[in-house]
Specification:
Elements (H helix, E strand, L loop, with lengths): L1 E7 L19 H16 L6 E4 L3 H13 L8 E2 L8 H9 L7 E6 L3 H8 L13 E7 L10 E8 L7
Parallel strand pairs: 1-4, 2-3, 2-4
Antiparallel strand pairs: 1-5, 5-6
Length: 165
């Protein structure tokens, strides 16, 4: 069994409107939330052996915060251009091209695509993934190429303002 953790980037800064969307950094809350949520996953004994991210600054910084909390060298994060402004097909392609040695992969991306993709799997319905939320799915598959048609089951949904963490 494999698992996918869809993670929306942490809260980004809108302080400077002249900064292009791709280059928006995390704000103070985002810088706090990313390691906090990674810590909650560690407390739940959630393993992550693959980190894949949009190259946009806010997603990249979120992925780096998670990797650091997990004790993983940030140089091992895989950046996939198509995860910026991704639709469902880009998520499928990214997942189907993962190395089969990876069992538990965290994918860091953006709304609205990440929420749409989470709902497309039809394992649970969410209105919107808040910033730094994690939508986790277990997949009955030996290879990532089989992901699209593999049986999937909802695992958990974690987010910063969740009170029963």
């Amino acid at each position: 069994m494999k698992s996918i953790l869809l993670i929306r980037h942490a809260k980004s800064s809108w302080e400077n409107f002249s900064v292009p969307d791709f280059d928006r950094p995390l704000n103070d809350r985002g810088k706090r939330d990313a390691p906090m949520i990674a810590g909650r996953l560690l407390d739940r004994k959630v393993s992550i052996d693959g980190f894949v991210s949009s190259p946009a600054k806010r997603a990249k910084k979120t992925a780096q915060a998670f990797a650091e909390k997990y004790g993983v060298d940030t140089a091992k994060i895989i950046y996939v251009e198509n995860l910026y402004e991704a639709g469902p097909e880009q998520f499928f392609e990214t997942i189907e091209n993962l190395d089969d040695k990876l069992e538990n992969v965290a994918i860091f991306s953006h709304n609205p695509g990440i929420t749409s993709f989470a709902n497309l799997m039809e394992v649970a319905k969410i209105d919107e993934m808040p910033t730094c939320s994690v939508f986790a799915v277990r997949v009955q598959s030996k290879t990532w190429k089989e992901f699209r048609n593999a049986s999937k089951e909802f695992w958990f949904f974690e987010y910063p303002k969740k009170t029963d963490a």
